[in-house]
Amino acid sequence: MSEINLGIIGGGQLGSMLSTAAKKLNIKTIVYSDDPDAPAQNFCNDFIFGKYEDKEKINEFISKVDVITYEFENIPFETLNEMNKLKTVLPKPSVNRLIQHRLAEKDFINKQNIRTTRYVSIEKKSDIETLEDFLPGILKTTTMGYDGKGQYPIKKIDDLKLLNIDFSKSYILEKLVKLKKEISVIITRFGNNNFEIYDPIENIHQDQILKHSKIPAEISEKILNQSKEWASTIAEELKYIGTLCVEFFIDRNENLYVNEIAPRVHNSGHLTINAYNVSQFENHIRAVCSLEKIPLSKLSNAKMVNLIGNQIEPYRQNLKLNDNEFFFDYLKKEIKEKRKMGHITTLI
Ligand code: ADP
Ligand code: MG
Question: What is the mean pLDDT of the segment spanning 149-166?
Answer without folding.
Answer: 84
